[in-house]
Amino acid sequence: MPIDQHGDATLDGVSLRSLPKISLHDHLDGAVRPDTIVELADAAGLPVPESDGDDLADWFAESSDSGSLVEYLKTFDLTTSVMQTRENLTRIAREFVEDLAADGVIYGEVRWAPEQHLSGGLSLEDVVDAVQEGIEEGEDAVADAGHDIRVGQLITAMRHTGRSLEIAKLAVAFRDRGAVGFDIAGPEDGFLPSRHRAAFDYLAAQFFPVTVHAGEAAGLDSIRSALLDGRALRLGHGVRIAQDLEVVSREGDVVEVVFGDLARWVRDREIPLELSPSSNLQTGAIAAWGNEMADHPFDLLYQLGFAVTVNVDNRTQSRTSLTRELALLAEAFDYGLDDLETFQINAAAGVFLPVEEREELIDLISEGFDR
After folding, report:
1. Per-residue pLDDT, 250
2. Which residues form the Adenosine deaminase domain (predicted)?
3. Which of 49, 80, 172, 243 has its CA 20 to 30 A from that of 63?
């Protein structure tokens, strides 16, 4: 399915970009506009590999397509380097919200790690406040343009550092000022969620929602720890849950599968999988199944009844959008609009909002797809 010059695609005569969408797994430092990076880096005297925005976009895409999460993460050194002042953080957050709205997103959760934005002298509270200011500016700008969007913060701790309890307390402190949930991110393999049990215990005691990066660069032990130690309500990626499925036979569209206990728990509890197809290809998360979109276990998980959702992970690194990810999946697996609607309803059901607001989002999605 070709994507046109405006980043749109058409399915059954419907513009995918125009459809209402929910974004659950969207990194702020993975969504900085290349033109903005060039401008801010030039003002700060920071080196950039390319001085033109389009060329820098190419550099991100090429550098990220490494087959390794560790290599993929190295590109964030550049994006975070221009996110060290209040003004820059506010601008980048505002542009992020505007870009979500242009992608058809009606509700999004933006995840980012405050501890990575302190080299300019700001405090943890300063950076969260700066990002919230930008989010609100973006929401207002989108409203002025005649559209509605709401964005909440997922305050994130880096799993390879020792600040998770401090960041968890920061997240709870901002629960009435924009923070809707908590996450841990960074290098997954070798850094199980169990290392952050004190933070997760604190969050559980505060009834504060948690999603955990798991099942991307590490396997079932990581997912198990996310659920047992992290009390995760969603799995960040979670694609390797498919390792706990034994495909016994395939005959046409009929697949006979034996479930492991972990996979059955995730499926039966309807724990949302924050799948990011393009990113999963770039980082090698689906290498066990192949290296093409059609090899992604997304469709297997969907057909077996898992709560699959579609996400971008990092718009800049993967040079993508939710519109593009939906188009790629529709092309790879011959999905129709009903399937794409299911993915959005799954996401709406999993957002970190009260049940009444989740139901409102589901209604908005159904109305949008009906139109």
Report:
1. 82
2. 20-366
3. 243
Please answer whether residues 132 and 153 qualify as being in contact, where contact means their C-beta atoms are separated by less than 8 angstroms.
Answer: yes
- What are 104's two structure tokens? 């058809």
pLDDT tens by residue, 29-83: 999 999 999 999 999 999 999 999 999 999 998 888 877 777 777 889 999 999 9
Gap between the Cα atoms of 197 and 236, Å rounded: 17
Residue 74: the pLDDT is 83
pLDDT at 70: 75
For 288, half-sphere exposure in the C-beta direction (CA atoms, 13 angstrom radius) is: 14
Query: Using CA atoms, how far apart are residues 329 and 312, in angstroms rounded to an integer?
Result: 12
Q: Give the whole-angstrom CA distance, residue 258 versus residue 317.
A: 36
Active site residue 367: no
Locate 357 and state its tokens. 């607001």
Dig out the tokens for 159 from the structure.
């799993």
Q: From the centroid of its chain, how far is CA 360? A: 22
Compute, in degrees rounded to 10, the torsion defined by CA atoms 332, 299, 72, 32: 70
Average pLDDT of the chain, as a whole number: 95
C-beta pairs of 61-66 under 8 Å, 24+ apart in sequence: 61/317, 61/318, 61/319, 63/317, 64/282, 64/314, 64/317, 64/318, 65/282, 66/282, 66/283, 66/284
Cβ atoms of residues 350 and 307 within 8 Å: yes
Q: Residues 145, 190: contact at Cβ < 8 Å?
A: no
Sheet holding 308-310, edge to edge: 211-214, 234-237, 273-275, 308-310
Residues in the chain, how many? 371
- Residue bearing tokens 């996310």: 226
Rg value, the chain, Cα? 19
Q: Token pair for residue 71?
A: 């290599």
252, pLDDT greater than 80: no
Residue burial 31-60, b: 16+ Cβ < 10 Å; e: rest? bbbbebbbebbeeeeeebeeeeeeebbebb
Whether residue 105 contacts residue 149, with contact meaning beta carbons closer than 8 Å, is answered with yes
* Range of weakest confidence among 2-11, 161-170, 200-209: 2-11
List pLDDT tens digits, range 182-226: 999 998 889 999 999 999 999 999 999 999 999 999 999 999 999
